Amino acid sequence: MATDTLAPAARRPILDRLRRDRRAQLALPVLLLLVMAAAARPFMTERMRATDTDNLLAGPSAQHPLGTDELGRDVLARIISGSLVTVEVATVTVGAALVAGTVLGLLAGYRGGWLDAVIMRTSDGLLAFPLLVLALTVVAALGPGLRNALIAIAVVTTPRFARVVRGEVLSLRTREWVSAARIVGVPQSAIMRRHLLPHLAGTLLVFAALQVSTAIMAEAALSFLGLSVQPPQPSWGAMVASGTDHLSASWSLSVFPGLAILLTVAAFNMLADALRDALDAHRPQLTPPR
């Protein structure tokens, strides 16, 4: 059975390449801080709800490092609490879309025929609409709320994974080792699970990191429009929307949640680029070891 021979560079540990990539060095601390903030949310509930009526729309100070909102609530505490929503978006929506899209893409690419036509034409129909417009349609049908927003984002993201997986499977299913497995009688489900899926792991990992940033932006937009997280639970998009009504009185109310969104999205994009280069055996390192 013929197998693909990995280049020497491809056998080097991926983590070692990431450790030397400056993009990963910048992205990983930001994402670690995000996870730590989400984990700290249960300890911030009381501070998040506390109101300081003597300091409404106050700027950054020793008592409130990022200022207060129109009700006197601490902006830093609410940003930390809102990070849990971002983590849920990154894990739940992209995780669900990854699983569903991978299954559909494998079936469409390997089985072909009418199944491929049905899956791909449905995916094309969903992809014909802008992501946010389609997400707004799904949320409008289901009703506002975080759970429905997560469902909407997962639904509109699934076709993206399905199309990427299908394209990879179409090129892999003609390889000699796949043909040999079919000849010896390996079931189709086993071929897809044992022979095709492992070769998709790298592509899916990079694509998932890119889709996380898209999902975060979509949830922030839905929250901005009041269709995702509902008060009093904070989310970064809703905090930006609330701050736009008080920009003349307090610039920090919108700026700091907006910066949190910007840094998180940029971190996931940089991590995706670093992962792509680390997994690409034929691409030289952009930041070689000193």
Automatic annotation (TrEMBL):
Residues annotated as domain ABC transmembrane type-1: 83-272
Main location: membrane
InterPro entries, alphabetized: BP-dependent_transpt_permease, MetI-like, MetI-like_sf
Membrane topology summary: Multi-pass membrane protein
Membrane spanning stretches: 26-44, 89-113, 125-143, 200-229, 249-272
Coiled-coil intervals: none
Record key words, sorted: Cell membrane, Membrane, Transmembrane, Transmembrane helix, Transport
Subcellular location: Cell membrane
Keyword Cell membrane among record annotations: yes
PANTHER family in the cross-refs: D,D-DIPEPTIDE TRANSPORT SYSTEM PERMEASE PROTEIN DDPC-RELATED, OLIGOPEPTIDE TRANSPORT SYSTEM PERMEASE PROTEIN APPC
Family: Belongs to the binding-protein-dependent transport system permease family.
Designated name of the protein: ABC transmembrane type-1 domain-containing protein
Taxonomic placement: Bacteria, Bacillati, Actinomycetota, Actinomycetes, Kitasatosporales
